[in-house]
Amino acid sequence: MQLTIERSALLKALGHVQSVVERRNTIPILSNVLLSAGRDRLAFAATDLDMEMVDEAEAQVQVEGQITAPAHTLYEIVRKLPEGAEVSLLYSGDDPRLVVSAGRSRFNLPVLPAGDFPVMSTDSAGASYVLPKEDLARLIDKTRFAVSTEETRYYLNGLYLHTVAEAGIPLLRAVATDGHRLALAETPAPEGAAGGPGVIVPRKTVDQVRRLLDDAGGPVEVTVSAQKIRFSMGEASLTSKVIDGAFPDYLRVIPRGNDKQADIDNALFAKAVDRVATISAEKSRSVKLAFDNDRVKLTVRNMEAGQAEEEVEIGYSDEPFEIGFNARYLLDVAGQITGENAAFRFADPASPTLVLDPGDPGVQYVLMPLRV
């Protein structure tokens, strides 16, 4: 294999695929990126056995061929080369090393045979649709903060992507929950999405897709089956296994009869929560909210660090009411509100609270209260 490729093109493609590779691997081939040169293209592939990322870039190929090389090492080398450099990759087969050279720099990297590289099978059955990249980015950004990190309930360790019909209108919906809070975002379902299986996309896959979207130039093609999901954006595509489990019936958690409503200036409220939470106990980070006559009083008591109080003017005309929340969860939700105000809807101090964003009717957040 012998080729020449521009540094920027090589760096962009390597940056996409190497992010899938785990830093520590017991299987050596999984630390490598598969390089396939042919027809003036250099193709890249990396996998962790649950997810596979592929990309390609234009190259001047003198000799076609395939080989695998250490993904992170190769990426770091290319990253540190000067901008505008022409990078030469050479693997002759006589020397068990890949020669990477640019200008006066030259590196010899160990290789493993391309035939040892695991290839993820693709599922032909399922649904396929095209989604504007802005819509997919919004679904991810509005919900992924609520994905659980507890491995015991593995079926919560991802984003539940599925279609629903509301008043006869098909919607593509993303839901995430960790048992303490829930985030839901939806967008009109693109043609071909309705009828596809609902799948739980793993947290790592969601993060990788979001990273890819920053470089994507156009819409995203999504292909989903009961076992796998693939996101294709231009030259790059990501195929991932989905979590084998049943996502809980989240509709039962979303309150429908909460009759107390507070309209809160989101930016002022978030800053107030952040200030009083400075002295909260690190474990619970609980903050008490006392609502009364167009104002809310935020209180934090910590036996060791003292007490903090702050009042914020809001729109509230119901009976006086107190409820407690985890400050971190309040700030996470506040960070997703696009409008000036956030609408909090309460039932009682022990029941879930619904938070709506008047600036984006397609999202809903649910927060479980704390005892304070």
From TrEMBL:
Keywords, in A-Z order: Cytoplasm, DNA replication, DNA-binding, DNA-directed DNA polymerase, Nucleotidyltransferase, Transferase
UniProt record, GO biological process: DNA strand elongation involved in DNA replication
Domain DNA polymerase III beta sliding clamp central, residue spans: 131-249
InterPro entries the record matches: DNA_clamp_sf, DNA_polIII_beta, DNA_polIII_beta_C, DNA_polIII_beta_cen, DNA_polIII_beta_N
Subcellular location: Cytoplasm
One Pfam family per UniProt: DNA_pol3_beta_3
GO molecular function, one term: DNA binding
Source organism, top-level taxon: Bacteria
Similarity remark: Belongs to the beta sliding clamp family.
Function: Confers DNA tethering and processivity to DNA polymerases and other proteins. Acts as a clamp, forming a ring around DNA (a reaction catalyzed by the clamp-loading complex) which diffuses in an ATP-independent manner freely and bidirectionally along dsDNA. Initially characterized for its ability to contact the catalytic subunit of DNA polymerase III (Pol III), a complex, multichain enzyme responsible for most of the replicative synthesis in bacteria; Pol III exhibits 3'-5' exonuclease proofreading activity.
NCBIfam families (UniProt xref): dnan
Name of the protein: Beta sliding clamp
Species, as recorded: Brevundimonas vesicularis (Pseudomonas vesicularis)
